[in-house]
Amino acid sequence: MLCRVLSCRHYSLSQGRLGIFQRASERYEKFLEHRFPRLYILYTTFVKGFRLMVHDVRETKRIRMKMLTQDVSLKELPYREMETIILFRKDMIKAIPLVIISIPPFAIILVFTLMCLFPRQLLIRHLWTPQQQQDFQRLYHEQRCRHRENILKGVAWSIPHIKEWTLRSHLLTLISKVQSGAHPSVKDISAVRGVFSGQPLGLTGMDSGHMRLLCSHLLLNPWLPGFLLRQRLRAKALDLLYLDQALDTLGQGQLTDAEIREACYLRGLNPSSLTTSQCREWLLQWLQLSTQLTESETSLLLHNMVLLSVNYPSS
Question: Could you tell me if residue 10 is inside a domain?
Answer without folding.
Answer: no
